[in-house]
């Protein structure tokens, strides 16, 4: 699988990709949400 012989390395690789996708989705969802900057 993608040249990886150890399944643990494959799981870590998949986790890294899913983490990056999750961060991108979180940023996209919260892009235009305003903070509590009013005084």
TrEMBL record:
InterPro entries given in the database record: Symport_access
Protein's UniProt keywords contain Transmembrane: yes
Keywords: Membrane, Transmembrane, Transmembrane helix
Transmembrane region(s): 7-29
Cross-referenced NCBIfam families: symport_access
Listed name of the protein: Uncharacterized protein
Species, as recorded: Melghirimyces thermohalophilus
